[in-house]
Input
Amino acid sequence: MTSPRTIPIIEIKGSPYERGRQQGEGARSQILRALTIYREILPQEMKMTWKDGKRESRKFLPYSEEAVPHFVEELRGVAAGANVSFEDVWTLNCYEGLAHSRQDVWGCTSVAVRNEHTANGHILIGHNEDWNSADRDNVYLVLAKPDDGPDFISMTYGPLLLNIGMNAEGIGVAIDSVYPTDVRVGVPRVLCSRAVLNTRSIGEAIRACAPKLRAGGYNYLLADPNGELYNIETSATTHDILYGEAGWLVHTNHYLSPKMQALEAPGTYAGSHVRFNRARRILQEQIGEVTVESLQELLRDHVGWPDSICTHEDPADPPYERGLTLVSLVMDLTGRAIWAAPGPPCEGEYVAYHL
Output
């Protein structure tokens, strides 16, 4: 018998540069593999050479050095630890800004549930991280002990900055790609998500989602240990704050706010709506009895395939355009624990990690 596949975890601590260096050393194989893959993807999918991609990504750097210099320093450490160039690492962290014109609607499904709706009175977040299947072997977890913020557990892949997870203050964040038309050069959105993991209150987390110099936007599903639940839908130039009035939230990859829908790129967003409505239905059926295990089952759901919550590669898509659930997470903000399964989660085993 073979052992179930699990996600590797790296422990890092210290200053931004030192943490990045440890991440780069610990994930060197994933970083080298990602850089090799995206040197092929960039020309095929965006008709842009890797050299052109590096040149374009340099435009984002001054904004980031002004707004979040400590995160730029963290990425310099990642490059040093992996023994690759900072320009290569920086280019992949700007990838969504370089790719904005394609408007491929990648997946991601996020849910949050307040304590009165869970079986044990805990606040829970579930998230399926859907992206290019080429990154299937590039995913890893990091347990971070920064000297400039709370401890946290986060997932990432390749040389990307840490961006989805939960910190010791009980602040949890999951992100969903959205597709606004006001994208610009500025702070790459993955750096904004990283900033949430440094926060100590829900208000601070909301502010971290929408810095003035940002290049684009995500939806940030936020929750804290008091059961405050928010979707922060952002673009480069504006945002809207949606509160979890009913005690639970769902988000996928289309805007919910009419204000933000006015900025949404044209498209059907059919797959996003299918996953959104399916997740809402399942969650409503669980209300009052939601558990870590029931959220795991929600994240393994296949209704509506190939637009299902648990996403598998569609052979009809070109090789570098195949979506896949890379990792599935359930966070217990009350118990400061996170369960992670390699994707697709129907084939993986959830393993618990504790802060």
